[in-house]
Structures are given as structure tokens and as C-alpha cells.
Amino acid sequence: MFVTIDDGWEKDPAFVRLVRERRIPLTLFLTNAAIKDDYGYFTGLRRAGALIEDHTMTHPYLPKLSYARQREEICAPADIYARRYGTRPTLLRAPYGATDRATLRAARDCGMKAVLFWREVVTNGRIAYQSGHRLRPGDILLVHFKPHMTADFERLLRTIDEQGLRPAAIREHLPAGYFRS
Ligand SMILES: [Zn+2]
Q1: Which end of the chain, N or C, is less packed with Cβ atoms under 10 Å?
Q2: How far is the CA of 91 from the centre of ligand 1 (A)?
Q3: Splitting the chain (181 residues) into consecutive groups of 10 residues, what average pLDDT does each group show?
Q4: Where in this chain does the record put each NodB homology domain (predicted)?
Q5: How many domains is the chain built from?
Q6: Taking a C-beta distance cutoff of 8 angstroms, is the pair 12, 32 a contact?
Q7: How far is the CA of 143 from the centre of ligand 1 (A)?
Q8: What CATH number did the domain enclosing 60 receive?
Q9: What is the 97 CA–ligand 1 centroid distance (Å)?
């Protein structure tokens, strides 16, 4: 299964240590408005192996916007993250999971290879299951950068482990063309 973490408002230094020490593969969908006060925090996670991907400039409800505005929301952070983190995002997560046809066109025109959704949402380390009480291989978990997230995340890792699964790197499970190095 795959762990994705969205937005980026909270920046807990202990979380970077946990990710580094436990070598947890993560995909981060970052909103520029949430991270611009401390881009360096995410450099730490990047160095620990996390992928930095696109979650728009200001976290709008994209279907309300014109194609041109959607394109701006998606392209601008990709350019900024390419400069800051050395790799241009190729995955988009739309705020609220809300997309329309213009979103998909804008994402493609900004160089995105896929728009990623999720299956389970994790709140305070607890998984809201879609069906039953188990994760399934291949599930995508949605977590947010939150206060106390290190302890919550350790609880989440225990739950995943108890179910006989482990977080995998999404890079190794999408076709090669989905990523540029
Ligand atoms: Zn979000």
C-alpha cells in the first residue's frame, strides 16, 4: 500500500527523523501556500526519500475555476518545486479530490502524468476503512501534515504492520514514463 501526505501546514521536525530512520517511502502532495514559509522542512523529507508532488498553489476547488486559472494553480507549484527540490512533480492530487475536464487538460499541459486519488483517509493515526476493517494491497492512504503527527504516524505504521502490509514506493509501481529523474 501507499502512504500519501497532503498540504504541508504543520512541520514537525521529529517526523523527518522518523521517516529517515524507518525508511518510510512517502508521496507528498504539497500546497505552495502551506509550505512557502519553510520550504527547507520538505528538503529534509526529500532527502529521506519522499517524492514531492503537486497539490496546487492555494488549494482551491478547481472545478469552479477556468482552464487558465486551473493551469496556473497546477503549473506554478511544479515550477517552484522543480527549482527548490531538483525534481519536477509529475503527479497531481486535486484539492478535495475535485476535478473536471479542464483539470485533467491543465494537469496534462503542466506535465502531470497522472492525477492520484485515494482509498482510505487517516485522521490522528486512525484509518477510516472504505469497506470492512482491513487494508488491501495497493490501497492509497491519505494523511495530512498535522500537529502530533509523529506519534499518530507510529500508530498508523503499527496498524499497517499488524495487517501484514508495508508502505511501498509509488515510483516502483507506476510505469516508467510516469517519472522523470
Ligand atoms: Zn489538500
Answers
A1: C
A2: 14
A3: 97 96 97 98 96 98 98 98 96 97 98 94 92 90 94 96 95 74 45
A4: 1-181
A5: 1
A6: no
A7: 10
A8: 3.20.20.370
A9: 8
